[in-house]
Amino acid sequence: MSTNRRHFLIGVGVVAAGTAVGVYVVPRLLGKHEAPFEFKPHSFVRIGTDGSFTVVLAKAEMGQGVYTGLPMILAEELDVNPQRFDIEFAPVDPAFFHPFLKMQFTGGSMSTISMYDQLRLVGATARNMLITAAAAQWKVAASSLRTEDGVVIDAKSGRRATYASLAEAAAKIPVPAKESVALKDRKDFKYIGAKHPRLDSHLKVTGKAVFGSDVNPPEMLKAVIARPPSFGATVKSFDATRTRAVKGVIDVKQVPSGVAVIAEHTWAALKGREVLQVEWDESAGRDVSTESLRTQWRALAAKPGKVGKNDGNVDTALGKAAKRIDVEYEVPYLAHACMEPMNAAALVKDGQCTLWVGTQNQSQDVNMVAAALGIKPENVTLHTQFLGGGFGRRASTTSDFTLEAAQVANGVGRPVHVVWTREDDMRGGYYRPYSVSRVRAGISADGKGIAYHQTVVGKSILKNSVIGKPILDKLGFDPSSIEGAANMLYGFPNLRVDVHDTDETVPILWWRSVGNSIHGFVVNGVIDELATLAGRDAYDFRRELLAAHPRALAVLDAAATDAGWGKPLPAGHHHGIALHESFGSIVAQVAEVSVVNKTVRVHRVTCAVDCGLAVNPDQVVAQIQSAVIYGLSAALSGEITIAKGGAVQSNFTDYPVLRLSETPQIDVRIVDSGGPLGGIGEPGTPPIAPAVCAAIYAATGQRIRKLPISTALT
Amino acid sequence: MITLNVNGRSQEIDADPEMPLLWALRDLLKLTGTKYGCGVAACGACTVHIDGQPIRSCQTPVSAAVGAKITTIEGLSTKGEHAVQRAWVELDVVQCGYCQSGQIMSAAALIASNPNPSDADIDAAMDGNICRCGTYPRIRAAVKRAAEIKRNGGAA
Ligand code: FES
Ligand code: FES
User: Fold this and answer.
1) Where do runs of H (alpha helix) occur along A564-687?
2) Which stretch of A54-68, A108-122, A506-520, B9-23 has the lowest confidence by average pLDDT?
3) Is residue A628 less than 8 Å (CB to CB) from chain B?
4) What's the pLDDT tens digit per position in B6-61?
């Protein structure tokens, strides 16, 4: 905050001469979302006497557009064009905690859903107080005043007052009760629901956006870590003689994640690591390989697991089915491969720790760093930066990359930035879980889907996470291991999903859409197999199973219509269709694919999405396109293979991702049925793999039950 | 000491001649708009211009850049008014933004030499630039729009 500005918290708080002091009022407005404290020198919005509007963003911006969408919601009720906002990343503070997770966290496609009511109320309350201030000044009834883009207007007298001129008076007005603050009618929305340009575009096209990688506190050193060759391996001994001789290397030290080489700059750290001799104890995981896991897991999948869902009686129904299938599906470990590799900077000094990091998981990072350093969380300050992609990787259940930065920096006395090379990042674990499923499903004599039984084998993500552990303890299984299957929209009268939790050394994590990325593929694949078994059209067959869900039907119909389902396609082109619900949103996709000499080419993907109200429709389109491309990369060639306990792949050379020339045309229709708000960052990913695989089946007659397609297609 | 000409300024750095230009720019000159993504010339995040040609700075030793004119995203325009940057903003291309400096430098080099790039030209020029957020559909449209802005006399 510049020192020549005066800012006013909306409420009783006052910001004077650049130092904010005051009562933090916003949480008090929030009823059950109330944060458990007051007196905080900040707020979601500050209105400056100089005409500035500062909006504090409680969520991490990783591409998904919250930097624009969340301020738009506040702007709507405040009645100020979001283009006039300066955006600041929030400090870690209960004021900015996720309403029900009670921690600062960005993920699960929940940002808009969880903050929509909150930000509307903040904006409306602030506007209400500004109007009250003007009414008092002009001695008129507040009800006779209106606002227009940051100005209070008295239509009768023609008087106008900017919010800036009213801020000081407004700040002294008692905060009105939540009930007395009127929210806008949806039909009067100016910003919500209309395309609004991203507020971070300019920063990002000029190279000025500061990512975690770009932070530059004075005196900062760079470090890389020699990391274990296999998961679970530990350092036995190391010899740093040659490393210490490298010009620019400052220190070499062992930390829990390996041996850190600290240097004046990245290049020296890398050169130093190249000549570092480390002897590892690999006894923990050296035997683990995808091959060995596959053998064990296929055997497990034949046995009943912990039941997560059990409707009707699948055994009886399967016994009576006219036709049935008994098939295995398999999806690999996947790296998130965020464009910006993991990194974090830390300064540990005088019992305090300062962190600079692009993270989705601020509260947990602070707590874990504090615990590791033996200091109080209030002595840890975390500065959130722009994230060069997140996709779940930056919501680490162990705070791995932030924590190790603090461990490396501890004792150095200068800030140390621990950077990961692409190889470190790709071989560093925290993958989408490897998962094997066995599915038995059947149809009746009249061709209806009547029974579905899926046994899932894979490692629980939640069991190793702070937020997930209580859930697992309560249910006895990890719902994210079976999400997308147990709660599928397809209405099988007899449905059972059971799960075997595994315990391999490979660290796993949520990856864009989590379990849905696995089971959207399995469920839709099986639906297609059943449609074929019944001799029926895959779209019609789905319509029947979705009869109880009008929103899903509308989405399915929209995608099918826009794609021209059932109509002739160019020679050699084939359609496949899939639908999946996740994070409260429903997405259907039709993929148009050709297969020539085992080369799969996706020409066009037609999408329909119902996410409830689309706050910034243009960014909803962008997120669906993004999710399709992310899922398509994985479906076509994404695979982390484990051999000798470690990852085989290491860079974009052996972990290929989609490039521009391979990108299909992606059309998106937003179908708003008036349903509740849904998430948008993730729901576009699950349907793409099964839609493409269905099209491949139409083209070649080969059923793809194992991803990626590149290794499965024969 | 090595002398580099970066964005029109002559700059002295104390670097090993084989240090990749990327680290010299980022760590020594604090020009952090140029990004690291792979280190092996496979992603394009580190793209800068050397004498107008797009190159991968992660695979270019500083010694190879001596005497040449280096342009980074910070030097492409003073306020983001380059035709490519304008088109990028107009079409709201960016998501996380991490790849975009590299994308923009590749696109700027393309339209500098090709006033009206076809889809195939765009494929060829831009395929070395990965975007994990999948902004490709908008990149394709924005390259065309940038070429149009430039043809119509916009800054480039
Ligand atoms: S960092 Fe240079 S091409 Fe990837
Ligand atoms: S915008 Fe995120 S990688 Fe391209």
Assistant:
1) 617-637
2) A108-122
3) yes
4) 999 999 999 999 999 999 999 999 999 999 999 999 999 999 999 999 999 999 99
* One domain for residues A300 and A264: no
DSSP secondary structure letter of residue A333: B
Closest chain B C-alpha to A468 CA, distance in angstroms: 27
Domain ranges of chain B: 2-76, 83-151
Task: Determine contact, residues A657/A633, Cβ cutoff 8 Å.
Answer: yes
Q: Does domain B83-151 have CATH number 1.20.1050.10?
A: no
Residue A28: pLDDT above 70? no
Closest-approach residue (CA) in chain A for B58: A267
Give the residue among A14, A32, A362 at the shortest CA–CA distance from A212: A362
Q: What count of residues does chain A have?
A: 714
Cβ distance A389 to B131 less than 8 Å, yes or no, reads: no
Which CATH superfamily hosts domain B2-76? Beta-grasp domain (3.10.20.30)
DSSP secondary structure, B81-99, as one string: -SHHHHHHHHTT--SS-TT
Q: Are A249 and A262 in contact (CB under 8 A)?
A: yes
- Cα separation, A557 vs A553, whole angstroms: 6
> Which has the higher per-residue pLDDT, A4 or A257?
A257
Cis upstream peptide for A708 (omega within 30°): yes
Say if residue A400 is in the same domain as residue A475.
Answer: no
Q: What is the pLDDT of residue A17?
A: 23
Q: Please tell me the distance between residue B74's alpha carbon and the centre of ligand 1 in angstroms.
A: 18
Residue A622 with chain B: CB contacts under 8 Å: 92, 95, 135, 138
Which residue CA neighbors atom 3 of ligand 1 most closely? Answer: B41
Please, which pLDDT band fits residue B156 given cuts at 50, 70 and 90? low
Tell me the C-alpha distance between A101 and A36, whole Å. Answer: 14
Q: Verify whether the Cβ–Cβ distance B40 to A618 is below 8 Å.
A: no
CB contact under 8 A, A629 and B134: yes
Check whether residue A136 and residue A185 sit in a common domain.
yes
Q: How far is B41 from chain A (nearest CA, A)?
A: 10
* Each residue's pLDDT tens digit, A502-556: 999 999 999 999 999 999 999 999 999 999 999 999 999 999 999 999 999 999 9
How distant, in Å, are the alpha carbons of A68, A119, A135, A181, A225 from that of A77? 15, 8, 18, 10, 48
User: A171 and A278, same structural domain?
Assistant: no
Q: Which of B25, B35, B43 to mutate to test the pocket of ligand 1 (most atoms within 8 A of CB)?
A: B43
Q: What's the total number of domains in chain A? A: 3
Output the DSSP codes for A45-103: EEEETTS-EEEEE-S--SSSSHHHHHHHHHHHHHT--GGGEEEEEPPS-GGGS-TTT-S
Any residues with CB less than 8 A from the CB of A655 and at least 6 apart, and which? A335, A337, A426, A638, A639, A640, A649
Quick one: which atom of ligand 2 is closest to the CA of B94?
Answer: 1
